[in-house]
TrEMBL record:
CDD domains: ligand_gated_channel. This is TonB-dependent receptor. Residues 53-159 form the TonB-dependent receptor plug domain. GO terms for molecular function: siderophore uptake transmembrane transporter activity. Residues 1-26 form the signal peptide. It is a multi-pass membrane protein. It comes from Acinetobacter lanii. A motif (TonB box) lies at residues 41-47.
């Protein structure tokens, strides 16, 4: 593993000034940074409504608000790295292409949502993570395992959902943060709430000179600029609720295009209208209309990608006994993409039903979905799960589920495209337990297995021994008969008053079962550890992320370890000071093999300081 542990004098001074030196002068103030508040952790991804995380019969993890608030500069890929079950592969730093591999599944086999809105694009099947902003997020939920019953295609590996904030009180704030590589972010926002009516508005801007994306040959910096806004208006009553959300982000990023310097303009836009009516005491009806646009335009080139996903959904939840409910819904979806080579749209409709039993000792889910796709026909998936409270401090769970993923438009029509592809189909099994131990220690463990049939893979079909100079191999997308992912996951947490320690570890093997080769860019072992002291007045914390080596096309990707530091001080009820050092050792860890001795590398260290003024 690579690890450098000597920060610069400036970085060390920032940590000391913002961390240790503030401990003696902190004042008691009201703050949302108290991570020790005894509140239940609620999640929405597993059942479409709020549920205590300890009752969910599956493994679900949370990237919590205090982590999201530590550094506005921190890009979304860096936040996702804190979950060891997610391997984030980025070809550089800010704004560079990013793929995520959840529990060893492929990068387009994980569904990414924001408040229920699908962010996976129609072309690649993945979400454009570097261009999504985190300014108004409450938490990030990571549901591991198949979720096609509730969400349809793409959810073979699981679901990552960004849950946005809803205003709880009237106020306003402004935040500024500055860091290395001439990186700046500013945010301004205001919230309003009165008589169950709320409104929210945010504006933000990021600028960075960026970093080099290669370890040698090309050491130029690749810049990133982005600005955006979001607005939310809604009403929340006992018997009904309605809201409209709008957000957009646009900017420019520079990148390396097969050895040539290039840049592109990007823009993404989300419109989300939601409503709820409690028709009776036991019947709740929900509706959603949403649209997600994702546009990329290459500068100095005719290349472009414009993608639109539109959805309409209606579902009802009937609590027909105190412990049982039935969820019934229908979703219609249209995906549309236009590029220099593609002009296609595909419609699909999904019908689903899920039964749920909930008591103090037993929680179960049993569901089925039929998805009717105009191009690929009808597919049925099922899922069953159970969690049983064996003892007061011990629970066990098990689930089994099938899932599927339709070919993307790139799979069908881009380079190597094949319009005869079949959808990928999977079956997954998982068992696990959670245990509360003395001294406020909680542990949990899971074992899982996923088998994927008809895995879509790029396969050489002609001139496979070509030298890539005069003879170029020809590749085509084909369905590989079988692939599998299996492994285990362990997590532990301890908290004593203001001090905390969290750890997570995963071991996963991902293989092409036809030729027994290891699937690319999936390290077998991942570890994360975080510890610190946090309260209403001040905080100082450290986190470690480590990965073992992974296979790539020509050479292995070495393992690495990096450490982040964070500190904050609530000077009073209106002013918060904070400091961050991402990757304190400035480790240029390798992420993708490029050729010869050249690799893509991450962005290295990012030290920053910031201040928030709030009213």
């Amino acid at each position: 593993m690579q690890f450098l542990s000597q920060p610069t004098a400036l970085v060390g001074a920032i940590a000391l000034a913002m961390g240790f030196s503030t401990l003696t002068s902190a004042q008691t103030v009201e703050s949302t940074n108290n991570v020790n508040a005894k509140l239940d952790t609620l999640v929405v991804t597993a059942t479409r409504s709020e549920e205590k995380i300890e009752n969910v019969p599956a493994r679900i993890s949370i990237i919590e608000p205090h982590i999201l608030e530590q550094s506005p500069i921190a890009a979304l890929p860096d936040l996702l790295k804190t979950d060891p079950s997610i391997n984030v592969v980025q070809s550089g730093g800010y704004g560079q292409q990013t793929s995520i591999f959840l529990r060893g599944t492929n990068s387009n086999q994980t569904l990414v949502l924001r408040d229920g809105v699908r962010l996976n694009t129609a072309t690649t099947g993945s979400a454009s993570l570097p261009f999504l902003d985190t300014t108004d997020l409450k938490q990030i939920e990571v549901l591991k395992g198949p979720a096609s019953v509730l969400y349809g295609t793409d959810a073979i590996g699981g679901v990552i959902q960004f849950v946005s904030k809803t205003p709880e009180k009237t106020g306003a704030f402004i935040t500024g943060e500055m860091g290395e590589n001439k990186t700046y972010k500013s945010i301004v926002g205001a919230d309003f709430t009165e008589n169950d009516i709320y409104g929210q508005i945010r504006g933000q801007r990021v600028e960075s000179d960026g970093t080099a994306v290669f370890n040698k040959n090309d050491l130029r910096k690749y810049s990133y600029d982005q600005k955006g806004m979001s607005a939310k208006l809604g009403i929340e009553k006992d018997n009904y609720a309605a809201s409209v959300d709008y957000s957009e982000n646009e900017g420019n990023n520079e990148y390396n295009n097969w050895g040539s310097f290039a840049s592109q303009d990007f823009k993404n836009e989300i419109i989300n209208l939601k409503g709820r009516v409690n028709a009776t005491k036991n019947l709740e009806i929900n509706a959603r209309l949403s649209q997600f646009k994702d546009d990329l335009d290459q500068l100095g080139s005719t290349s472009f990608v414009h993608s639109i996903t539109q959805e309409a959904e209606l579902y009802g939840k009937w609590h027909y006994t105190p412990h049982q409910n039935i969820l019934v819904g229908v979703t219609t979806r249209n995906i549309d993409a236009v590029t220099q080579d593609i002009n296609e749209d595909i419609n699909s409709t999904g019908y689903y039903i899920q039964h749920q039993y909930q008591s103090d000792q037993l929680n179960t889910q049993l569901g089925v979905r039929v998805e009717d796709n105009e191009k690929f026909g009808a597919h049925m998936v099922v899922q069953g799960a159970i969690r049983y409270q064996v003892l007061d401090q011990t629970s066990i769970y098990a689930n089994i589920g099938s899932a599927f993923k339709s070919p993307t438009l790139n799979d069908l029509y881009a380079y190597g495209g094949n319009d005869q592809l079949d959808p990928e189909e999977s079956i997954s099994y998982e068992v696990g337990f959670d245990q509360q131990l003395p001294f406020n220690i909680k542990i949990g463990a899971s074992a899982f297995y996923t088998k994927v049939d008809n895995l879509i893979n790029s396969v050489c079909v002609k001139d496979c021994d070509g030298d890539w100079v005069s003879i170029f191999p020809v590749y085509q997308n084909l369905n590989v008969d079988k692939a599998s992912m299996h492994g285990g996951e362990f997590n532990a947490a301890w908290q004593n008053d203001q001090i905390f320690l969290n750890a997570g570890y995963i071991y996963v093997e991902s293989r092409n079962d036809e030729d027994h080769s290891e699937l690319l860019r999936r390290p077998r072992q991942s570890l994360s550890i975080s510890t610190g002291i946090q309260n209403q007045n001040y905080g100082l914390s450290a986190s470690l992320v480590a990965k073992s080596k992974a296979k790539d096309f020509a050479r292995d990707i070495p393992g690495y370890m990096s450490i982040d530091l964070n500190s904050y001080w609530n000077l009073n009820s209106h002013i918060k000071l904070f400091s961050n050092i991402q990757n304190i050792g400035d480790v240029k860890f390798k992420t993708i093999h490029s050729g010869g001795d050249q690799y893509y590398v991450n962005g290295g260290r990012q030290a920053s300081v910031g201040v928030t003024f709030k009213y």
